[in-house]
């Protein structure tokens, strides 16, 4: 797996959290006894004798740890989220309890946080013009559901195009990526079925699995032995207690895991799936458009047949610069979803200009618009990824994830460094994303860089220089493996095995 | 010296022990011996697992794996399933809509205030598109918060006269994420039977105890609350930490009627329950300025803990919002699943919503009360034989249900489809209200959805009414 947390660092991290917890208790005590002013919003006077809405302990983390470094998140921007972005400056005079906007705009911050893998977040260009035309013709909203009066010809066009892009028989598009998972998994499986889900699956997959009512079993992250053992046990022993055979088994995996940057071991998963006759649900939220020689996702990356994956799901938010999600698969599957998906019956369909943006960007990636922009971007992203990761490893940081994934997590570990890293990088005009508990395990907080085809080499070099500086300042270079700077290795199948020591 | 003393002391104890050994009765010695042997046996025997896995041989396991046949991933759907073949709308779904190639007057889209085709709204969206592009490429926490989002939240909060508002990028996800953020396992939620599907999904995700009360029946609700009160008295410690909520809609989507909010407020303070109000249909429609059911009844908005609505009906955009006091709304910024883990609303849709809100505030011609007169035309004067109109006179979304069922639900659905087809062929676009039959808790009867909008003229309403009469007569007789 990935490089292990150094022992000293782990101990210091726990110490850090311990100190913060102690101070948290102290401050809570002072707030309770009115020594310190409580700046939380409070309940209405008339409702003071109602059962309290929040338990005090639930919000302990929120009040005492999150509030200290709250300025690293929810940063408001006021320009297109491309490679460079403008941010509204905000200051806090009371330690992040309230923010005021100074009115100044910090211009041209190198954006390493937005999910803009192929650089389609643009305010000029073919996509934007096409979307503008459709907007003036169709308007912004739809005001009806797919099954009622909301199915526009644009939606049909989009679905045919997406099916062609993915190499599947048929596809269906939805207005929100999160909702695609949480509303369609319950339509596919129900009670009496088994879901095998990866440890680090996204909240939408977990919610969808929970809402379906099926039994959920978790296998270790990307660990094929764990998955095989669960499959064997499931088929041999059947449902717990009644021993009836399972109706169906669904394996939920993601293409690229957004917090780790690891790529799923798809050939092995497909082999297992075929051997044990189960079904595979692949969530390509981050990998569609970002992986593979022609940008068609993790299936393309491994050179496999898209028909082997039973349900191919993905989102349009990341690589296509729009919003929404899709599911692709066999015609029977999509017909079933058209009839029984919660989203088709109750949720408004996609907005027409957004649909047009997706159509134009997919055509661009496929090369059908007559230019080679799409292909060039896919290649640029792959080059940027390899270059950036290699340089970071050479500098001595601990980086998780597969060599080819454009999601680059850089380990920070200690709670204080989370806030410090975000602020220091902003001072140097680089916008990064830092994540801590509860999105990651408590001692493994990290900074996550999302590379984009829109980043030029100069931007990456500037960013790397600043990261180097901040890394030295905050002593983030934990890695004990020193990578010798070597020439570019050719791409080969065993690349993903490198992460397995 | 001390060591010697200790040694002597030890010897002394040893001597005593040996003496006791000789003096003990025989049965005692035998019992002790047996116990020691038993302990030795336990120590050396194999551990046993709690779940006794049967000892299947490897070959048997392989045979089982070979034999197991799963169900197909999805069962086949019959080709004539009513929900399978969608109507294809070419062009914008505005007042005049082209469905399946035929031009009709739109009585099916929830475009209550006619803002879908409004030029000002479109140009605001265009300006936003030129400035920001289409997508936001990130969730709100990671560079996905745009100044338009902040502006829209402020405007909504000001319009609804609450402290704060929070926007979601999908109307369905708004209430479905809001409820589980507050109500957890062990809490109690009293919800109306006719609540829409999004509320049902939110309740399912929250894992709380759900208590359904009959639609708009305050006596039934009070009975349930009293029962809960007596339960609480048996276990006061648990009652002190169990939160209670009532979830109702302003105008119910499934039945078209209004909820009795003043009585609910009285019950709220009497039994100490919080109220969550879902105003998707009533936002922009009820009240003198379109602020919804609280304005309609003249209730202080702070009495309602949370108001949730979607922007896909009156505001003709996409997405949803929740508004209320900061104490309540701020919590969703960290625990609303559809807010934290999902990309934010595309800026052009937010700009369209802001402009639509401007028009609602400034333009008295969009006074929702005028829609009342129009609805009256349809429901009041013309009696349609075989179909009954379900819904309040001022509700913009009505249902037309069969007066008597013709046997099974399938038959009813087929009949209504013929009525709808007759109307569509003659230039009035209607649709059946779609439900997922197996998933709804209380499935409403099949019906035709009729939507009254501000853009429809008197003649069009009359024409629709007479056409429906004709259709009903020809199909149902």
UniProtKB/TrEMBL annotation, chain A:
Q: Which cofactor does it need?
A: pyridoxal 5'-phosphate
Protein location: Endoplasmic reticulum membrane
Matching entries from Gene3D superfamilies are given as:
Aspartate Aminotransferase, domain 1, Type I PLP-dependent aspartate aminotransferase-like (Major domain)
* GO cellular component annotations of the record: endoplasmic reticulum membrane; serine palmitoyltransferase complex
Can you tell which superkingdom this protein's organism belongs to?
Answer: Eukaryota
Acyltransferase among keywords: yes
What are its E.C. numbers? 2.3.1.50
Please state the pathway this protein functions in, per its UniProt record. Lipid metabolism; sphingolipid metabolism; Sphingolipid metabolism
Stretches that traverse the bilayer: 6-26
| Entries under PANTHER family matching the protein | CLASS II AMINOTRANSFERASE/8-AMINO-7-OXONONANOATE SYNTHASE, SERINE PALMITOYLTRANSFERASE 2
Instruction: Please state which protein family the record places this protein in.
Output: Belongs to the class-II pyridoxal-phosphate-dependent aminotransferase family.
By what name is this protein known? serine C-palmitoyltransferase
Automatic annotation (TrEMBL), chain B:
Q: What is its EC number?
A: 2.3.1.50
List the keywords (alphabetical): Acyltransferase, Lipid metabolism, Membrane, Pyridoxal phosphate, Sphingolipid metabolism, Transferase, Transmembrane, Transmembrane helix
Enzyme class of the recorded protein, top EC level = transferase
Q: Which InterPro entries match?
A: Aminotransferase_I/II_large, AON_synthase_class-II, PyrdxlP-dep_Trfase, PyrdxlP-dep_Trfase_major, PyrdxlP-dep_Trfase_small
Q: Which domain of life is it from?
A: Eukaryota
Catalysed transformations (reactions): tetradecanoyl-CoA + L-serine + H(+) = 3-oxohexadecasphinganine + CO2 + CoA; octadecanoyl-CoA + L-serine + H(+) = 3-oxoeicosasphinganine + CO2 + CoA; dodecanoyl-CoA + L-serine + H(+) = 3-oxotetradecasphinganine + CO2 + CoA; L-serine + hexadecanoyl-CoA + H(+) = 3-oxosphinganine + CO2 + CoA
**Similarity-based family:** Belongs to the class-II pyridoxal-phosphate-dependent aminotransferase family.
List the PANTHER family hit by this protein, alphabetically: CLASS II AMINOTRANSFERASE/8-AMINO-7-OXONONANOATE SYNTHASE, SERINE PALMITOYLTRANSFERASE 1
- From the Swiss-Prot or TrEMBL record, give the protein name: Serine palmitoyltransferase 1
Q: Which organism is it from?
A: Serinus canaria
Whichever gene encodes this chain, its name is SPTLC1
């Amino acid at each position: 797996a990935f490089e292990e947390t150094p022992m000293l660092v782990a101990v210091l991290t726990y110490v850090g959290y311990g100190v913060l917890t102690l101070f948290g208790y102290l401050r809570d005590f002072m707030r309770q006894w009115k020594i310190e002013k409580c700046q939380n919003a409070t309940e209405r006077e008339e409702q003071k004798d109602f059962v309290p809405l929040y338990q005090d302990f639930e919000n302990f983390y929120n009040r005492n740890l999150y509030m200290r470094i709250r300025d690293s998140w929810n940063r408001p921007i006021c320009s297109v989220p491309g490679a460079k972005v403008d941010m509204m400056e905000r200051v806090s005079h009371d330690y992040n309890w309230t923010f005021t906007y100074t009115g100044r705009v910090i211009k041209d911050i190198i954006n390493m946080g937005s999910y803009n893998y192929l650089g389609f977040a643009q305010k000029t260009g073919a996509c934007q013009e096409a979307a503008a035309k459709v907007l003036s013709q169709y308007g912004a909203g739809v005001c009806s559901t797919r099954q009622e009066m909301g199915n526009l010809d644009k939606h049909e066009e989009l679905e045919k195009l997406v099916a062609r892009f993915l190499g599947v028989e048929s596809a269906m598009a939805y207005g929100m990526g999160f909702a695609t998972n949480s509303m369609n998994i319950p339509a596919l499986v129900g009670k009496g079925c088994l879901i095998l889900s990866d440890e680090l699956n996204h909240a939408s997959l977990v919610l969808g699995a929970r809402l379906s009512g099926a039994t959920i079993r978790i296998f270790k992250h990307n660990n094929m032995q764990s998955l095989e053992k669960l499959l064997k046990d499931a088929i041999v022993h059947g449902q717990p207690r009644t021993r009836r055979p399972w109706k169906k088994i669904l394996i939920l995996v993601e293409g690229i895991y957004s917090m780790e940057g690891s790529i799923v071991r798809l050939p092995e998963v497909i082999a297992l799936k075929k051997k044990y006759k189960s079904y595979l649900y692949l969530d390509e939220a981050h990998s569609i458009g970002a992986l593979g020689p022609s940008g068609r996702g993790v299936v393309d990356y491994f050179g496999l047949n898209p028909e082997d994956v039973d349900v191919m799901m993905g989102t349009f938010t990341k690589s296509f610069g729009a919003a929404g999600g899709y599911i692709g698969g066999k015609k029977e599957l999509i017909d079933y979803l058209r009839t029984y998906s919660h989203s088709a019956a109750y949720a408004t369909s996609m907005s027409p200009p957004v649909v047009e943006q997706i159509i134009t960007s997919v055509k661009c990636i496929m090369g059908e618009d007559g230019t080679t922009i799409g292909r060039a971007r896919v290649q640029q992203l792959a080059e940027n990824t390899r270059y950036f990761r290699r340089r970071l490893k050479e500098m001595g940081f601990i980086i998780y994830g597969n060599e080819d994934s454009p999601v680059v997590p850089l380990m920070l570990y200690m709670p204080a460094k989370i806030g410090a890293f975000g602020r220091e990088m902003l001072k140097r005009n680089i916008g990064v994303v830092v994540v801590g508990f509860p999105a990651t395990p408590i001692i493994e907080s990290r900074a996550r860089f999302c590379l984009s085809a829109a980043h030029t080499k100069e931007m990456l070099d500037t960013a790397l220089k600043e990261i180097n500086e901040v890394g030295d300042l905050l002593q983030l270079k934990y890695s004990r493996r020193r990578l010798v700077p070597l020439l570019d290795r050719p791409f080969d199948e065993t690349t993903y095995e490198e992460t397995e020591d | 010296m001390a060591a010697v003393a200790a040694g002597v002391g030890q010897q002394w104890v040893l001597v005593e022990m040996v003496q006791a050994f000789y003096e003990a009765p025989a049965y005692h010695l035998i019992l002790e011996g047996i116990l020691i042997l038993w302990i030795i046996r336990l120590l050396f025997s194999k551990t046993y697992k709690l779940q006794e896995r049967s000892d299947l041989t490897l070959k048997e396991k392989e045979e089982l794996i070979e034999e197991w046949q799963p169900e197909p991933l999805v069962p086949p759907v019959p080709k004539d399933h009513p929900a399978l073949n969608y109507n294809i709308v070419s062009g914008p779904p505005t007042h005049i809509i082209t469905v399946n190639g035929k031009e009709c007057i739109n009585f099916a889209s929830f475009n209550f205030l006619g803002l879908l085709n409004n030029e000002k709204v479109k140009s605001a969206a265009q300006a936003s598109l030129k400035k920001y592009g289409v997508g936001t490429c990130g969730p709100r926490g990671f560079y996905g918060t745009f100044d338009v989002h902040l502006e829209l939240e402020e405007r909504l909060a000001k319009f609804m006269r609450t402290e704060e508002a929070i926007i979601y990028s999908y109307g369905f996800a708004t209430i479905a994420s809001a409820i589980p953020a507050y109500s957890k396992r062990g809490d109690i939620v009293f919800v109306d039977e006719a609540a829409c599907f999004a509320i049902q999904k939110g309740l399912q995700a929250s894992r709380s105890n759900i208590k359904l009360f009959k639609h708009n029946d305050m006596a039934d609700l009070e009975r349930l609350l009293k029962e809960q009160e007596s339960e609480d008295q048996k276990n006061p410690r648990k009652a002190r930490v169990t939160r209670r909520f009532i979830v109702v809609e302003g105008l119910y989507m499934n039945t078209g009627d209004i909820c009795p909010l003043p009585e609910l407020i009285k019950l709220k303070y009497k039994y100490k329950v919080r109220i969550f109000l879902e105003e998707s249909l009533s936002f922009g429609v009820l009240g003198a300025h379109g602020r919804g059911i609280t304005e309609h009844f003249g209730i202080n908005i702070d009495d309602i803990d949370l108001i949730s609505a979607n922007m896909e009906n009156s505001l003709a955009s996409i997405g949803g919002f929740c508004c209320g006091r900061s104490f309540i709304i701020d919590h969703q910024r960290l625990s609303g699943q559809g807010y934290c883990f999902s990309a934010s609303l595309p800026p052009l849709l937010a700009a369209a919503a802001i402009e639509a809100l401007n028009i609602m505030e400034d333009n008295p011609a969009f006074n929702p009360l005028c829609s009342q007169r129009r609805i009256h035309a349809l429901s009041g004067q013309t009696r349609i034989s075989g179909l009954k109109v379900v819904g309040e006179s001022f509700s913009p979304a009505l249902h037309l249900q069969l007066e008597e069922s013709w046997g099974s639900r399938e038959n009813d659905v087929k009949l209504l489809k013929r009525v709808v087809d007759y109307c569509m062929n003659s230039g009035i676009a209607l649709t059946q209200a779609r439900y997922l039959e197996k998933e709804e808790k209380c499935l409403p009867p099949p019906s035709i959805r009729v939507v009254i909008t501000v853009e429809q003229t008197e003649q069009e309403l009359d024409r629709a009414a007479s056409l429906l009469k004709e259709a009903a007569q020809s199909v149902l007789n």
